[in-house]
What does this fold into?
Amino acid sequence: MITLTHGAGGTVMQELIKRKLLKALRHDETSGFEVPLEDLDDAAVVRGIVFTTDSYTVKPLFFPGGDIGSLAVAGTVNDISMMGGTPVALSLALMIEEGFAISDLERILQSVDSVASKAGVQIVTGDTKVVEHSALDGLLINTSGIGFRSPALEHNFEVASRLRPLMTKKWLLDSNIRAGDKIIVSGHIADHGMAIMSVREGYSFKTEIVSDVAPLNGLMRKALEIGGVVAAKDPTRGGVANLLNEWSEKSRVGIDISETEIPVRPQVGAALELLGIDPLVVGNEGKVVLAVIPEQANAVLEAIRSVPEGRDAAIIGEATSRHGVVAMRTVVGGSRVIPAPAGDPVPRIC
Amino acid sequence: MITLTHGAGGTVMQELIKRKLLKALRHDETSGFEVPLEDLDDAAVVRGIVFTTDSYTVKPLFFPGGDIGSLAVAGTVNDISMMGGTPVALSLALMIEEGFAISDLERILQSVDSVASKAGVQIVTGDTKVVEHSALDGLLINTSGIGFRSPALEHNFEVASRLRPLMTKKWLLDSNIRAGDKIIVSGHIADHGMAIMSVREGYSFKTEIVSDVAPLNGLMRKALEIGGVVAAKDPTRGGVANLLNEWSEKSRVGIDISETEIPVRPQVGAALELLGIDPLVVGNEGKVVLAVIPEQANAVLEAIRSVPEGRDAAIIGEATSRHGVVAMRTVVGGSRVIPAPAGDPVPRIC
It folds into this structure.
């Protein structure tokens, strides 16, 4: 039986994908796929085209800071950007429950348009399906997207390879990281998951907790223009903890981070502490984690701090040679291992 | 409120798309989109890349002749093929209800793999979401796809333009048809819709009615290699009636067809007659309707009859100068107008 954890972005989902999906789908590795499905990276690259897909099942559809429409555009824009791609065109597939209010649909479409416009991408093709009442919980969206190699990627890899030999100069891959590379997070973590949780569970706070949903292609361009980035990934389902463990596994490195350096809004941190949830496993929708050649880390940090989405960016740690070990120096001075979560503790955050 | 008819592929859906979706989504028509969203063709073309998306909400998931997996691959392969594209890579996004049987998922993935392999395309990227029990009716799939210009398209248009001046030699568009062009359907119509209906409603027939779900890129290649095709479209939701009305509107022509020429399996025809449903409005998933320069119609017909999916192809009529009028000579010798259906009479056929 499929469980909620099978879709929660952690180790259980990875197992399902590796044991069932990848096994069932045969691949011809000779046919020009630069980033094969097996790598489970953020997007595929086919003959120079960066291609990705994501479905959005967020509940509720409207939340502080965004809605399913802004999420669907930002999420797919970000998956392409994380590879070093420039997103160009998106598809928009709507699956709607009979009885859904057209005014709500219009609000969602306005968000789609607004975020697409901000990110400089266009919706070029679409599909609309309607199912009978109760066969679906309101509305689901799938956006797929295509993009091309970012013009700044050549420069980025040139800078990086001057400082150390690179495994590849093709794309920003999860497998590119080497011991010593600095780990940067682009801002406060756990805002999105906490915003969803607070509105869904009806928690009330003095100040509203707002989702960080945002397209990050502009921020990524800034970082690549500085140069020295070797990997980038957005910490969505399963959060930063899942991301770092994926990197550790695919790059065959360890990663040490420092709790005092991780940006968490006090209110979000306090709420999660009350709930007993580690902010590292909570999903984000407008953040990126970068691995950068050490000599370039400060310059990249400064560059992404110059854009609003990266204002609170910080260097949180570095890769080590202890393959498979993701560890955190805690506030009190100890060290603890950060395991890959089985799944995100908050279902349906995206 | 959204109704089932808003997703049923007919005039009501077109209105929703034109009045709400297209209005909300701003477009920059200067940015290299060869087939804009406004055209509502089978796929978009962005810098030479044919790009399309479709969600699949078919009920039941397994039906005679196929399942949601075979449908999801064939449908997206066909949308790319209908433009004159060669499909290359597909995305596969699964939205699954908690409690879904993994063995059913495996069966569906095997169908995905089998049809993808038959069509010569690969699944290169994917996404898996799980929602709680009763938030979704089992499983939905979205497949998006990318393809490139078919190598035979140049030859096809060269042959066509030798016989009459063409509006465009770029792609097989709904707006390309001129009076005199022959209309070919690639085989028996209404099989898919009737197969879904019979299993869903529990009708029992002497012989099982089987869906026609099939990838048509091979058949399309055969037709283009002969040359003279100006438009192609698969009659899915809303069937041949909806397709011909779309063509009539976009190409500013009339279309006359002959009831005696339309291939309908006797059992399917009899069942639909009992139900009072016109086979022309029922959806198909393995058929194409072609508009062909008259001098080439017989040669194209012969070519597509040489592949299994086109064995029962027939010329069913031709375009006329009576803009907006789709009419059928009936078996008894009269003539009746074929209006665009409000929507497919069978919900959730795809």
Q: What stands out?
A: The mean pLDDT of chain A is 94. Chain A touches chain B through 79 residues (CB under 8 Å). DSSP finds nine helices and 15 strands in chain A. Residues 31-149 of chain A form a domain with the 60s Ribosomal Protein L30; Chain: A; fold (CATH 3.30.1330.10).
